[in-house]
Amino acid sequence: MATVNMMTSGFSPAMAVPQMHGMGFEGMDTEVSTGTTIMATEFDGGVIIGADSRTTTGAYIANRVTDKLTKVTDYIYCCRSGSAADTQAVADIVKYHNDFHRMEMGEQPLVKTVAHMFKQLCYDYRDQLTAGIIVAGWDKRNGGQVYSIPISGMLQKMPFCTGGSGSTYIYGFVDSQFKPKMTKEESLQFVSKAVSLAINRDGSSGGIIRLAAISKDGVERFTLTGDQLPKFYEDS
Amino acid sequence: MSILSYNGAAIMAMKGKNCVAIAADRRFGIQAQTVSMDFDKVFEMGPNLFIGLPGLATDVQTVLARLKFRLNMYELRENRRIKPKTFMSMVSNLLYERRFGPYFVEPVIAGLDPKSGEPYIASMDLIGCPMETNDFVVSGTCSEQMYGMCESLWEPDLAPDDLFETISQALMNAFDRDAVSGWGAVVYIIEKDKVTKRMLKTRQD
Prior knowledge:
Chain B: Component of the proteasome complex. The complex is a heterodimer of chains A (236) and B (205). With 236 residues, chain A is α+β, with helices and mostly antiparallel strands.
């Protein structure tokens, strides 16, 4: 009988419930993952963020209407990819730090500040976490900004960014279609087409497309379901 | 990574009143990546006899080729069409010959007896253990989801058009909860004098 050591980084539910392992309960020893497609882009006046809505445990789709666009402050959101538990935990901690920061400073934090808080957690605990996060938002000093924090905790400010398992299928598309200073409408089209293409090819991405536009006027959320998803060539 | 879920597939067959239906998804993928959406997994073995082959794609193609050869030899020697039950035994034998290094396919068979027109469905595991049922059979990466859907939706003596609706809904809602199957579906309704093949419009995710 294996003793369960809660401190090891390789903890999986199967160790705690030995009789579940390998008896048809395949979902018990694979982590819940937002194998996913996430994206953020600057536009003239703010940022657009977008994501698919699929969460998988192995090949089973545990949630087909997930919300991967998580609010951190009124003007700053993060897009989560990787382990669902890890990214939710990190986002909760950063949200807590920011509530505190806002009370101390009396004003909304800078996007750069929030991005650095995410980076510090993702870097310091890099051996225990599987988290790929995109931080995007608006502040009055620098307008719309996008910060990418991939798996091991580096931080990079970029005009636009994609992430998650589905992003590999759309590098060519986003590199060819991005233009600086697009309008809000053009950016929404850009993000929804890119996520739709990734969903089409990536098994770990799917469901509906969730979008949000963040600007000085706050956050506006959109959902694209079923036939509203952009369509491309299909031969049947 | 399980070998049987490397490519991903969802196939089921159902019995109706004097008819059978067999349906499959159309995805060919390599783990999470979808490579094509027009990969056939259901094959005609006789005018009223079909086999569905989910599992490792290379073995789907090899088993099909070897089975077709054996079937052709049978028809040349016997000078008649094979009965579905005999065909099931042929498939079972082919798979058990490889008991200790198996083909990674778990076939589903659906057909009508050539003389009496009686419906027949069966499935088997990768080493050829057959299972004949009177309602439905399922096989693939989302088999648990398919069992749930079939158990809820199937009822006995469905007419061909109702059987089409039932099998379509059961298959689609099952593979919509599986990350490695879907991307299109094909449904065959097999009656005594005609076979209708229909493509379903499905979510492409």
